[in-house]
Structure formats: structure tokens, C-alpha cells
From TrEMBL:
Disulfide bonds: C67-C82
Gene Ontology BP, a term: negative regulation of alpha-beta T cell proliferation
TM segment ranges: 200-222
Gene3D superfamilies: Tumor Necrosis Factor Receptor, subunit A, domain 2
Domain TNFR-Cys: 66-108
SUPFAM superfamilies to which the protein is assigned, alphabetical: TNF receptor-like
The keyword Transmembrane appears for this protein: yes
Domain of life: Eukaryota
Record's protein name: Tumor necrosis factor receptor superfamily member 14
Any one of the GO CC terms: external side of plasma membrane
Length: 230
């Protein structure tokens, strides 16, 4: 009978011991919101803008230190170092939109002449230079901070060097009294030579004939008036 009681007490002891171990493990794995776990213990977390210099012990609390320049922590934490601030690299088409502080990371935006191709947390993290239209094309839509430049090809009879918002019609050399030396392309205007000598000569002859006719009419009218008086 005594042997049975000893066995029963031993079983109860084992059950209680296991419950204690499980309870401690469960408590250690589920620290409160303002705490973090170190091994099987929970330590008070450091506030935003600070990091853990030394973990808590049975007799001391967590030792926290402020983030150094160029680093940040944006939440309560149990980290042993702060995060490095994002670098808004001008060589990658980025500039600072919001400076980095001990409690928040920097935010970047695209430089002029670039458009953003990837965003994160309200900032641009990757940018690309706007497309440059080629000769023979015109700018149908100028690039913005969110969109690339759009280029379209010039139609027949027009040209552009790629920097204008429309294509220009080729010059018709004959219409300005000149001979065409080189026809226009989609990127260059027609090339005209010197004024056509024959065209100029014809214009002079016609002008001279008109003046002679006018003079002859004037002389005829004057003779009639003089004859009538006589």
C-alpha cells in the first residue's frame, strides 16, 4: 500500500514538473508587445530611434543607445544595431525627397529628366532616364516623373531632328525660285541651290515689257490731248 502511494506521488510530481517546464517555455516564447525574447527570457524593447546596447539580465533592464548619424530604427525593437539610411544616389537618377532621421528612413524621388520605375513606402527606389527621340522622330508625349517620353516617326514629306514636338514639311525649292539639290528625308529638309538664273531673267523681261506698255499708253494719251488743243 505504501509502495502504491509513493508511485502515485512520484507521478504527480512528474506531471507538475512538466507543466512548469511547458509553462515557462510558453511564457518565454510569447513576450509582451513592448518586449523581445533573448534565449528563454523576455527583455524590455528599445524605443524607435534607439538600439540595444546590452540585453537585460535578472538584475538589470535593457540598455539602449541612440542610432548614430546615417542610421535609423522606425519601431520599438530588440536589434543590436540600427538600419543604414537609404542613399538617394544622383548617379542612379535619384534625389532626396525626405531626409533620414533616427526614427525614419530617407525617401527618394527621381531627378529631372528621369522617371520612376519602382516605388517603395512612398519613395522612388529606381529611376530611368527619359528616352531621347532619334532624328526622323518627333516627341508625341514628353516624359513625366512617372512616364517615359513617347516618340513617333515622321510621315512622308516631313522631317524632324528629334527634339521638336512635331515634324516640319519639306521646303519646295521651286516655290522660292530655287533648284533642288538634295531631296529631303525624314530627318533633314530639302537642300536648295542658288536662285534659278532663267527664272530671274524671265521675271526681269516681263517687268520691262509691262513698264514699256504703260509708258506707251501714257505717251498716246498725252499726244491725243495735245492734238485736241491744236
Amino acid at each position: 500500500m505504501m509502495f502504491f502511494n509513493v508511485q502515485f506521488i512520484f507521478i504527480i510530481y512528474l506531471v507538475l514538473f512538466h507543466m512548469y517546464i511547458i509553462g515557462n517555455a510558453f511564457a518565454s516564447a510569447n513576450c509582451r508587445q513592448a518586449e523581445y525574447r533573448v534565449g528563454e527570457d523576455c527583455c524590455p524593447a528599445c524605443p524607435a530611434g534607439m538600439y540595444v546596447k546590452q540585453h537585460c539580465t535578472e538584475f538589470t533592464g535593457t540598455s539602449c543607445r541612440p542610432c548614430t548619424e546615417g542610421t535609423y530604427q522606425d519601431d520599438i525593437n530588440g536589434q543590436e544595431q540600427c538600419y543604414s539610411c537609404t542613399n538617394c544616389n544622383a548617379g542612379l537618377g535619384l534625389k532626396v525627397k525626405k531626409v533620414c532621421t533616427p526614427t525614419s528612413d530617407a525617401l527618394c524621388e527621381n531627378l529631372d529628366g528621369y522617371f520612376c520605375i519602382d516605388y517603395n513606402r512612398g519613395g522612388c527606389i529606381a529611376a530611368q532616364r527619359h528616352m531621347v527621340c532619334s532624328p526622323g522622330q518627333y516627341i508625341s508625349q514628353r516624359g513625366t516623373a512617372d512616364k517615359d517620353t513617347e516618340c513617333l516617326q515622321c510621315t512622308d514629306g516631313t522631317y524632324s531632328n528629334g527634339t521638336s514636338s512635331s515634324c516640319q514639311p519639306h521646303t519646295t525649292c521651286e516655290s522660292v525660285g530655287r533648284k533642288q539639290i538634295q531631296p529631303g528625308s525624314d530627318s533633314t529638309d530639302s537642300e536648295c541651290g542658288e536662285h534659278d538664273v532663267n527664272t530671274g531673267l524671265v521675271a526681269v523681261i516681263i517687268t520691262g515689257l509691262i513698264l514699256v506698255i504703260i509708258l506707251a499708253i501714257i505717251l498716246t494719251v498725252l499726244r491725243k490731248k495735245i492734238s485736241g488743243k491744236c
